[in-house]
Design a protein that fits this description.
The protein has 4 domains: 2-177, Pyruvate-ferredoxin oxidoreductase, PFOR, domain III (Pyruvate-ferredoxin Oxidoreductase, domain 3, 3-Layer(aba) Sandwich); 196-376, Thiamin diphosphate (ThDP)-binding fold, Pyr/PP domains (Rossmann fold), CATH 3.40.50.970; 386-455, no CATH class; 461-599, Rossmann fold, CATH 3.40.50. Helices cover 38% and strands 19% of the residues. It has 21 helices and 20 strands. The chain is globular and about 85 Å long.
Length: 601
């Protein structure tokens, strides 16, 4: 069982509400879900959609064929009709759209009239639509009713009753009138699953790591992190500060860290440009800080609400001067949760900035999990506190040590004077101008720390055949779609239902012949990017060098990761697949691109 549902309409029509509600119903029913959104940067109007993939096995990306389109505007019909699978259907309200469609793959559901008749308010049309979709899938409404009760608890019994009646009306209408509905959704009777976005996972990872201060200026796609943490601040004793701009945001985080608490800031590309001086300040003063950097298409404002992997080089090389940094690029919410925890640990342990780079696609897409293993969460307090700090005979904030890591005390926690400076300084933190101290300080901050930090960096994830002839590689949010592409090719493609049932490339059906076989494919996914992982823990270079075909997959125009790989290891990919239209890869789309590259070989 594997179905895709697309809810389309204008901003302000409740597209996200319907999508979120359906996703919750499915996950609480024990089904696996993957969702992604496509929305314009306007409050009202435009065309947006929310896509849900529902399956009885784990799914990690969206596919092209749509089984149900919920059309709240005419564009949803014009743009998405040709995406329907063979038995796919579009449900719409002809009265609201002021047009009637008589084709067999349309179901006219009077959303507004049913909402007014059974709920008492036309605003409940979205609830009718939600119930209708569940009716088409023959899924019972008990879980939806529970969600409605939780959602409208503060609005009173009348609102709850109205929405329940509206949902039931939509459900009953679909059951009675959808004669072409042939969807087979079996009752799993399984335990509810955890539904989480990448932004929520980063936020939750920060909370689990002991975060006490978060400062940011709202900017898509990083705002979701701030919103999630702000919702939990009272429960976990966290201060969330919406600053006047990104310059203030990073400096507030550095001030909080200097004062003795774990601190974080978040932004997107344009805001990160303003944080650059603060990033260098963290490097010079050796102040731990975690920065969440959300990518969206640029330059400048670009596509404010779309996705891209265009800021890798920016994260790697921005800021003035030379100092160590760590860059993580999670590819799933699960990776985001654990890597955020590691980001805090490494930032505190080595007194450096750590950047978690992600994109709009990962931030907003929802994945299902059984749960996260909290025993993997690490918390070690590397700061000097209490009697340990008080009993030190002397305190030098930037003392020369064998590891380059120096004592980090808490201001006011002992009699010792706390001094640091953004100018070059001596061991005590006072400004200096001499060359000898400059060399020793740079050696301490950079060359002594980097070898130790590099040992902390994990290898890429390897998935597929052990000795592959074909290797696809990527970083960040391409993880899920690459995995599904590998699964399809290993299963004697095309295994899932593809767009209108067509083969992706009929000319390549003789898969076991020629110089390679699709059944010898694997993927390498890099989520720990800098310092670049060594081959000591896992020799991924051997895998790449032994493969006949290597393909690097990125959501940017210039192949930023492929260039980093070549610069760090000397390895150059045979082929590249680059997408830079502001949209993520679907499984089908990526498979077509892979087939195309294989056909060239």
């Amino acid at each position: 069982m594997d179905y895709s549902i697309k809810i389309g309409g204008e901003a302000g029509q409740g597209i996200q509400t319907v999508g979120d509600t359906l996703a919750k119903v499915f996950t609480r029913s024990g089904y696996h879900v993957f969702t992604h959104q496509d929305y314009e940067s306007r409050i009202r109007g435009g065309h947006n959609f929310y896509q849900i993939r529902l399956a009885d096995n784990p799914v990690t990306a969206s596919r092209d064929g749509i089984d149900i389109v919920v059309a709240f505007d005419k564009d949803s019909i014009l743009l998405h009709e040709n995406e329907l699978t063979e038995n796919g259907l579009i449900i719409y309200d002809s009265k609201s759209l002021k047009e009637k469609r008589d084709k067999g793959n349309y179901l006219d559901v009077p959303f507004v009239d049913l909402a007014f008749e059974h709920g008492g308010n036309k605003i409940m049309a979205n609830t009718v639509a939600t119930g209708a979709v569940l009716g088409m899938l023959k899924i019972e409404l008990n879980i939806l009713f529970d969600i409605i009760k939780d959602t409208f608890m503060k609005k009173g019994d009348d609102v709850i009753k109205g929405n329940i009646n509206a949902a039931a009306a939509g459900h009953e209408f679909a059951l009675k009138n959808c004669h072409r509905c042939s969807f087979a959704v079996e009752a799993l009777h399984a335990a509810p699953l955890l539904l989480m976005t990448g932004a929520e996972a980063i936020a939750l990872g920060a909370i689990a790591s002991g975060l006490k201060f978060y400062s940011a200026y709202p900017m898509t796609p990083s705002t979701g992190i701030m919103n999630y943490i702000a919702d939990k601040e009272a429960e976990y004793g966290i201060i969330v500060e919406q600053s006047e701009d990104e310059i203030a945001a990073i400096n507030m985080a550095l001030g909080a860290s200097f004062a003795g608490v774990r601190a974080m800031t978040g932004t997107s590309g344009g805001g990160f440009a303003l944080m650059v001086e603060g990033l260098s300040l963290a490097g010079m003063t050796e102040t731990p800080v975690v920065i969440a950097l959300g990518q969206r298409p640029g330059p400048a404002t670009g596509f404010p609400t779309r996705t891209e992997q265009g800021d890798l080089q920016f994260a790697l090389y921005t800021a003035h001067g030379e100092f160590p940094r760590v860059i993580f690029a999670p590819g799933t919410p699960e990776q985001a949760f654990y890597l955020t925890n590691r980001a805090f640990d490494i930032a505190e342990k080595y007194q450096i900035p750590v950047i978690i780079i992600f994109d709009q696609y990962l931030a907003d897409s929802q994945w299902t999990y059984d749960g996260f293993d909290l025993t993997k969460i690490k918390y070690a307090d590397y700061r000097l506190r209490g009697d340990v700090f008080k009993n030190l005979p002397e305190y030098k904030r930037h003392a020369f040590t064998q590891t380059g890591v120096t004592p980090l005390g808490i201001p006011g926690d002992a009699k010792h004077l706390m001094v640091t400076d953004s100018d070059e300084h001596d061991e005590e933190g006072h400004i200096v101008e001499d060359a000898e101290t400059r060399i020793k300080m740079l050696d301490k901050r950079l060359f002594k720390k980097i070898p130790l930090i590099r040992q902390e960096i994990g290898p890429p994830v390897f998935y597929g055949k052990e000795e592959p002839e074909i290797v696809i590689a990527g970083w960040g949010s391409t993880c899920g779609v690459m995995k599904e592409a590998v699964d399809v090719l290993l299963q004697n493609p095309p295994a899932p239902p593809f767009y209108k049932g067509e083969l992706i490339s009929p000319s390549l059906e003789k898969r076991g012949e020629g110089r390679f076989s699709y059944k010898t494919i694997a993927m390498l996914h890099f989520s720990e990017l800098y310092p670049f992982p060594s081959i000591d823990k896992f020799n991924y270079l051997r895998i790449l060098n032994n493969a006949k075909i290597t393909i690097c997959i990125e959501n940017n125009a210039t192949g930023q990761f492929a260039r980093l790989m070549r610069a760090e290891t000397g390895f150059d990919f045979n082929h590249r697949i680059n997408k830079y239209d502001g949209r993520p890869f679907t499984v089908n789309e990526l498979l077509k691109e892979i087939y195309s590259r294989l056909a060239q070989t």
